[in-house]
Amino acid sequence: MKSTDEALKELGWNDFFREQVSVEEALHCHPVRVMAVHRGKLAVAGAGAQHSIVSSIPGARPSDDHPTVGDWLLIDKVTLQPIRVLHRLNLFKRRAPSDPRKEQMIAANVDTLFIVASCNQDFSVARLERYLVLAREVGVNPVVVLTKTDLADTPEDFAARVRAIEPGLRVETVNGRDPASVACLAVWCGKGKTVALLGSSGVGKSTLVNTLRGSDSIATQAIRAGDDTGRHTTTVRQMHRLEGGGWLLDTPGMRELQLSDAAAGISEVFDDFVLVAQGCRFSDCAHGAEPGCAVRAAISEGTLTLERFDRWRQLAAEDGGNAAHPAKRRR
Ligand SMILES: Nc1nc2c(ncn2[C@@H]2O[C@H](COP(=O)(O)OP(=O)(O)OP(=O)(O)O)[C@@H](O)[C@H]2O)c(=O)[nH]1
Ligand SMILES: [Mg+2]
Ligand SMILES: [Zn+2]
Asked: Residue 324: is its pLDDT beyond 50?
C-alpha cells in the first residue's frame, strides 16, 4: 500500500501546495486534484480515493476562486464539500467565446503545454503564435507537436515554419497513431507531471493521449474531407493517467483562441518587433505613418516581415492595444 504522501505526489502534489494547508485545515480536510469538470460536478482524486463532488464553493467569488481541471482543492473529510482552491502554479485562460467580457479557465497547474497542430491544410502559423503567446504569458514550457506526418509529403516543411516563429522552440513531428513515433513525447510525461494538450479540433489531441496510454478509451473522429477541420469530438477537459504516473490533460478543440490580458506573452513571442520598436523616434509610435519609425524601416529593409507585423498588430489590438507598449504593462 502506498503512503498518502506517495499517492499525492503521483497526482502532482508538492511543497508549493503542502505549505498552503494549515495544521487546522489538515485535521478536517484532505487535498484532492480536479480530474474533470462536468456540469455542476467535479471528478476529483485524492490519496487512494476518487469522488464525484459538487463544484460550488461557499463564498467563492464569480471568477478564479472556482475550481478548474488540474486544480488542487481542499475538501471536507466527512461531507466531501469543497472548501477552497489552493493557489495555482499557473492557470490557462482565454476570453470566453460566448461573452468576450468574461474569461474562461482552461486548465491549472500544468508542467508542459503540448500545442498540437497537423501537417495538413488546417495548419496555421498565426494560430500557433496565439497558443505560444498563451504559453509565454502563463509561463509554461511549450512543445509544438505536429501530427499526421504520415499523411504529408514533406512534414519537415511544416516543422521549419514552426521553428521560424521562435528560435529554440521545441517542435516534434509525429504520427499520432504510431506508438513508436510518439515515444519522443514521453520525456515530458514523467511521474506526477501534468501535460496539457491544446489545439484546434481534429488535430489529434485525443489520439495522442490514446496512443501514449496504449489504449483507445477516448473517442476520436475523422476530420472533414473538404478542409481538414475537426468535428469537436471531445467535449470535456479531463486528466488521463499514464502508466508511468504522468498526466495528460485532454481538452476540446478550440474554434478560436481569443487571448485575454496577454501583453507580456505577446512581447515575448514578438520580441524581434519589440526590440526594433525601441529604435522608433516616438516612444508611443504606432508604427504607421510616424516619422522615424524603426519598425517600418526594418520591414522595408526586409529584416522584419509585413505578415508577422500584421499578426503582431492584430494580437496587440485584441489585447487592448497594450502589447505594443510593453514597458507600460510588463510585470
Ligand atoms: N493518419 C493520421 N491520422 C491521425 C493522426 N492523429 C490523429 N489522426 C486522426 O485524426 C482524426 C481526429 O483526431 P482526434 O484525436 O479525434 O482529434 P482531437 O484533436 O482530439 O479533436 P477534438 O476532440 O474535436 O478537439 C482521427 O480520425 C484520428 O485517427 C496522425 O498522426 N496520422
Ligand atoms: Mg479530442
Ligand atoms: Zn514605430
From this structure: no
What gap in Å lies between CA 182 and CA 213, rounded to an integer? Answer: 11
Nearest ligand to the C-alpha of residue 223?
Answer: 1
Q: Evaluate: CB of 197 within 6 angstroms of ligand 1.
A: no
Strand, helix or coil at 106? Answer: strand
- Give the model's confidence band at 177: pLDDT under 50 very low, under 70 low, under 90 confident, else very high: very high
The pTM of the full predicted model, rounded to 2 decimals, is 0.92
176: exposed, middle or buried (C-beta count within 10 Å: 0-12, 13-18, 19+)?
buried
**Does residue 81 have its Cβ closer than 6 Å to ligand 1?**
no
Establish whether residue 252 lines the binding site of ligand 1, counting it when its CB lies within 6 angstroms of any ligand atom.
yes
Choose which CATH entry (3.40.630.30, 1.20.1090.10, 1.10.40.50, 3.50.50.60) describes domain 263-329. 1.10.40.50
Atom 23 (ligand 1): residue with closest C-alpha? 234
Number of the ligand closest to the Cα of 203: 1
C-beta 203 within 6 A of ligand 1 = yes
**Domain spans of the chain?**
4-85, 110-250, 263-329
Domain 4-85: assigned CATH number: 2.30.30.140
Burial class (CB in 10 A: 0-12, 13-18, 19+), 63: exposed
Which atom, in ligand 1's list, is nearest to the CA of 231? 24
pLDDT in tens, 28-74: 999 999 999 987 899 999 997 888 888 888 777 766 778 999 999 99
Is residue 129 within 8 A of residue 272, CB to CB? The reply is no
